[in-house]
Amino acid sequence: MTVTRTAEVSATGAAHGAAPPPAEPTPQPTPAAPVPVATARLAIFSLAIGAFGIGTAEFATMGLLPYIAAGFDASITEASHAVSLYAIGVVVGAPLIAALTARMERKRLLLGLALLFVIGSIGSTLAPSLPVMLASRFLTGLPHGAFLGIGAVVASTLVSPNRRATAMARVMLGLTVSNIVGVPAAAALGAQFGWRTAYGLVALIGMVTLVAVLCLVPRSAPAQAPSIRRELGTLKRPQVIITLVAGSIGFGGMFAVYTFISPTMTEVAGLPASAIPWVLACYGVGMTVGSLIAGPLVDRSIERSALLGISALGVVLLVLAALAQVPAVAVACVLLLGVAGSLFTTALQVRLLRESGDAPSVSAAMNHAAFNFANALGAILGAVVVDAGLGYRSPALLGAGLTVVGLAVMIFAVVSRRRAVRR
Length: 423
What we know:
Layout: H1 11-15, E1 29-31, H2 37-71, H3 76-79, H4 81-100, H5 106-126, H6 130-141, H7 144-156, H8 164-193, H9 195-216, E2 220-222, H10 228-233, H11 238-250, H12 252-259, H13 261-268, H14 276-300, H15 302-323, H16 327-356, H17 361-387, H18 394-422
Antiparallel strand pairs: 1-2
Helix pairs in contact: 2-4, 2-7, 2-8, 2-9, 4-6, 4-17, 5-6, 5-7, 5-9, 7-8, 8-9, 8-14, 11-16, 11-17, 11-18, 12-17, 12-18, 14-15, 14-16, 15-16, 15-18, 16-17, 17-18
Domain Major facilitator superfamily (MFS) profile: 43-418
Transmembrane segments: 42-69, 81-102, 109-130, 142-159, 171-191, 197-219, 240-261, 273-294, 306-323, 329-348, 369-390, 396-415
Region (Disordered): 1-32
């Protein structure tokens, strides 16, 4: 959730004092020389291509699970570990890379991250066995958060200060477009030509990103960054910890459903397999709508937006569990999950940046890791309830329970902060 996919907070938010939240902000790099407008546009476009590839790599697996399972003669729940291992890769890679590369030249780091993404994607494409495929998915997830965060911040330094939010949003637009175009296209390719073709497409996008960054992104050096001790110190702040816990648990419900979206739509809702790409596109449209409405709502109140987002997630999951057999309702619920999820993740991201103060890099990276922990948690627990014979409605019920826990954590966070402010 990545994630991330929610970083498109409007420039209006910046004007109201809410920093636009890239997937994981890093210390502000300084361009070596003034950048012409055309150069900046091409550089931002190349970074958006990378975001498009990352979004496709993260979510395409959900639509390919039946084909991956058949290809390795495994169960769908065994194949679903490809989702959780990618997410665990993000959980490990996001904070680790943010902490260890704060002073590294940005373009070189972006190239290294893109290369790692390509290697992991090729490994997924050519994997001779399920364990090798799972290891490749873990490797592909490692550069996910760092590339998105560094790319967004580098983009912001290529333009004038009053256009930084727009530049960052355009990089993150690649994530949104990936869920509308890339993920459905990968699912369609997988259904028609085999699941390896879809991962081959992801690897190709990664190669294009590598060449584009090499040719189009100017070199830049990071400014003096806060010390690692200060960065890690933010993780001791109660409000930072509570925010991360709320995201880790509350968003797991959505991933419990989305991991098994393909069999749920075909076996419960009765849709043909050929409709799955369109269902995935609906989720992408929901994310886009959610990112558009999140900015103004979060500008008005971070806390109310977070509570509204997670409450809406719970309601939609309950409706899906009850009425998944009705195709129109099931598809509408997928769209609404995208809307509510974008609102919730945007609110938590801005909240975390506010609570992190002047050392946001590691805690913001942990925010990205938290949502991917939710991805892994939802996929694993969803597999448990399906393996228990409870059917493909059960992940939605499980997800509703997770959102209740996340809502309780979020309420505690809001109440405790208000008390602290009064004191």
